[in-house]
Amino acid sequence: MEAAQKRRDREKADAQRREQEGTRIFAEEARIEQLKIQSQEDSIQKQIELITHQYNVSLKLAKDNQRQQQIAVLTYYNQLNAITQKEEAKKTRIEQQEAQKRQAFALETRRFNIEQTENDLERELALLQFSYDQQLQQAQGNQEQITELQRRHGIERLNLVTSESREAMKSVQGFFGDMG
93-111: per-residue pLDDT in tens? Predict the structure, then answer.
């Protein structure tokens, strides 16, 4: 009886050792596969392959443990969501940068065209309007600031027109003064 018990204990110990060895080999192979995936060029596909690999390894290690399986599933979906959100944020950031570049070019073109105006008064008024348009755009949503900018614009515009009118009157007076 004792010999049979020892034999069963030995067989049980051998089975446990084989299972541990199988688990160790599986873990080593899983780690090797993970390192292969990580060595690939950074991409969304690489990230998805990596979390899918981790998910499959977690499920295999969980065996029949429902809680461990649920943890693996939830972790997998959380990581997928994080990748998706990160990519969407990156795409939005790139689109915003492109829109800013287009807007900056449009503003630069507008300024260039204004500066090409030959009539001094028209050019000065257009540059003033251009400047205030930019300031109003930055003040968007702040009504108090917008009101103040509109007030300043009106005053500066009036000053430009008045100054130009004075210059014109001086020129006309000088012309008639020279005649008489």
Answer: 999 999 999 998 998 998 8
